[in-house]
Amino acid sequence: MRILFITSTRIGDAVLSTGLLDHLMQAHPEARFTVAVGRVAEGVFRRMPALERIIPIEKKRYGLHWLGLWAQVAFRRWDLVVDLRGSAIAWLLPARRRAVMRGGRRPGHRILHIAETLGLSPAPRPVAWFGPEEEARAETLLPAGAPVLALGPTANWARKVWPADRFLTLARLLTGPGGALEGARIAVLGGPGEQERAMAAPVLAGLPGALDLVGRLDLPEAAAVLARCALFVGNDSGLMHLSAATGTPTIGLFGPTPASEYAPVGARALAVLAKGPPGAAPMGALSATRVAEQAAALLARPVATEAAA
């Protein structure tokens, strides 16, 4: 059985779509998958079981990227084409069955919209894939010992970034005497590029003992590292979604973006919102004390076993 899975160009949306893939792999253990995904997010799927091929999509003017994708997949007959981009391409391919997600903004969490594409309820929870090589590197970076607090101080939009001083205060509250992670080591994660490095720089400067992993991990390596952490706290970002998918306790910080649509989804995951209008509040309206309290409550919460609602 051959399945073509067309997913997002963005890391966060790509991670949210992994639950649907995991469902299909369990339902069709004999299937082989071709995944079409934005180049920046292809690492999300690199260690996916049953993967036959990844086709990176690079956006081009006039929608020519769709023509390029069609040329790579049109001469094979597919048993199932799943298109989470809401494009017309699924209808232009020879396929026994097609499932196309309706496009446009609408109420509800993104993961519910993804699940509706195959008529699934509850929505399958996202997963994170990494292999022995990534596990070995993660063990080298974070050897067994004290727990690790992972911080994600970067995002793809400056308004989504929590002030650096709040991250520093939070680290003190959580890892200092009486904190929920007293004595924990700290790791700071972020993506590649100068912008990510600049966003993380004040946090790294204020935590001279922290492990600097900004721009130093590919996505499977980041997943393996996050899976070894006791807690992740970070801005609304692809890294936040990846952390939640590993099952690590994850807190996503939200202000000007809607948690109702993009809160982290995982066994122990929580969105903490800045005070103000939901989806339109400034990140500065979120205190470190409140996040620390929510983190302690999350760490005390038993692991949920049910799928995403």
TrEMBL record:
GO terms for cellular component: cytosol. One of its GO terms (molecular function) is ADP-heptose-lipopolysaccharide heptosyltransferase activity. This is ADP-heptose:LPS heptosyltransferase. Gene3D superfamilies: Glycogen Phosphorylase B. The keyword Glycosyltransferase applies. GO terms for biological process: lipopolysaccharide core region biosynthetic process. Keywords: Glycosyltransferase, Transferase. It holds the Pfam family Glyco_transf_9. It comes from the Bacteria.
